[in-house]
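Training component of the fellowship. As part of building independent skills, the fellow (R.M.) carried out the full modelling exercise for a liganded target. The chosen ligand was pyridoxal-5'-phosphate. The inputs are recorded below so that the supervisory panel can assess the work.
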Amino acid sequence: MTPTQTAYKNLIFQSEGYFGAYGGCFVPEVLLPGLQEIAAAFDEAKTDAAFLAEFNDTLQTFSGRPTAFTPLPRLTEEIGGARLFLKNEGLNHTGAHKITHCIGQILLARRLGKRRIIAETGAGQHGYATAAVCARFGLDCTVYMGKKDYERQRPNVYWMELLGARVVPVEDGTQTLNDAVIAAFKDWVEHPESYYLLGSAVGPHPYPAMNTFFQKVVGEEIRSQCIDAAGRLPDYCVACVGGGSNAMGMFYDFLDDEDVRLIGVEAGGRGTRPGEHAAKVLHGQLGIFEGYHSYFLQDGDGNIASTHSVSAGLDYCGVSPILAYLADEGRVQFETASDEAALAAVQRLARSEGLIPALESAHAFAHAFELAANLPKDQIVVINASGRGEKDLFITMRHFQEESLVAYAQHLLK
Amino acid sequence: MTQVKQPALALMGHLVLGYPTLEESIRTAEKYVEGGVEILELQIPFSHPTADGPVITAACREAVEHQRVSMNDCLEALNTIRQRFPEQEIMVMSYVNRVYAFGIQRFVEAMTNLGIRHLIIPDLPVDETPAAVITRHANIKLVPVLAANVTDARLDKLLNAGFDFFYLMSDFKITGSTFSLHPRLQQVIGRIKQTVPEARVGIGFGISTPEQVQTVHAAADVAIIGSALIRAQEAGGLETYLSSLTPASVGSA
Ligand SMILES: Cc1ncc(COP(=O)(O)O)c(C=O)c1O
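Fellow's submitted model of the complex:
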């Protein structure tokens, strides 16, 4: 291991929010006191044994950690290349990895004596998880959700409301995650005493490092589970990338293991033209937006571009500054998977292994299947199943069985 | 020590370049000046104006998405306004990504060539690295945009960093909200005036009536109006609205 490589893990939590040239805290002054308060609390909490014990205990008792590490023998055989395993983050309470950083942050919010929580959500998974932890700890919860996401992820809206959260559809702009983030920031300007529980490894300092810190348990579990199951570390770790929280959760613990290759899969959507995809590392330019310096999908004049993905959770214009840095360093490699490939991967995993991944996670599977086919049989590929697919019922059903969806809708209306 | 002159009370009028069209925004700037607005605040529109309320956001969106005004269009418009009013004080406002995409150094040069001495970039805290490209120029200054929750330590740091105009948010609001003046601002202003007496203090966000302008002028130097001017323009009553505002600023000077 070379000295530069051993530095990655250390760097992330000691960087004051800068990862190479990326990251930072680009927000109006009015938000600085709130962010500094959170950053200071996080700095203390991350080495406070009592805080960490409560965090780990809540992960176990409320969310069901550790999550399963599952061999995929039938797919391995079908594909005929590397051995495949998945890390089943979909088994978490509320159905995705998002609850892990929500538990971490809600404990921090309580430590700060906060009463009101604000969050943004794309697929609704982060909002759903936020609503659940707010209910669990008795805090008031407001979730902003782009109108388009509100409509396409309706089941999650219902769950959030059932959990007592107020869900606000955001009609600005393209009505997706980006607009929800901005609406949440505006709420925070108007209510600076609230706690903004941001849901990915993006945004101003300390969110990228903080959410990575809470999510790193995923990679730590994979390390020991893979050694138990296969006697050694994986050769490849593959995760989908929206903002980057599930990818950083999976990758962090392996950053200094140079033989473990790390692959982030972005949403290839339906093409490579602007507005047809959400591949910011591969097709974006450097920019400064929503509090951080990183790659963004934008026009040549610095206006943020619209994005597209069949999965709401990947349909976002920016990417974690930590991943941008690791991409430039060559430590994390980036690929894309199309809408079609992701849908096909859902069906394939369902039929061959009895598992239904979220559409976001399906992008990682789609790429991993291609990758594995070209690798020798002694290689190990681990895929992060960041979420389960139930939330996508109405999207995948429309794709695979449109007639039964229509018939069911008619039945409900009767 | 030399006796410092109290800055004159003034109105700062905000508009979005390219809204409703580039031509009309130039014309609006002219109307502002003719209507007695002492300082123009010209916004280079960004697709996602994160600190603005619905009125300015909609104006920016129209300028970017439908009028498709580029940075070069904005620079030309600024040049036209500058030619027309060589002595006019103009501040340029935008969001950091537009400036970053154009090149911060190149942007600063374009601004100084246009005789612009102040840049308002709300999502660029003055101590983040890219701000250094601006702060090292002698002829142009960033305008810190502060709210009532600015900590004493932060304020002291800013007061010792050479800024000569401080933009205060009237309250914890986004632009275009109903007006209120946060009680702690008085203390913030007192501290600014005590430490940097020659610096001007502007207050904005939600100001719309002559009475509110007066309230602001009793506390600070510059009343900043944005959304209300856009609404007046949309309703076709810009000149009347401006004339209702200006006596307040002229009369109390
Ligand atoms: C299941 C799932 N996976 C992945 C993502 C993408 O986010 P991130 O890249 O932060 O993991 C989301 C976001 O909503 C999600 O719900």
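The panel noted the following from the submitted structure. The pocket of pyridoxal-5'-phosphate is lined by residues A 96, 122-123, 125-126, 200, 240-247, 313-314, 358, 360-361, 386-387 (CB under 6 Å). Chain B touches chain A at residues 46-48, 50-51, 57, 61, 64, 70-71, 96-102, 122-125, 128-130, 144-147, 149-151, 154, 169, 172-174, 177 (CB under 8 Å).
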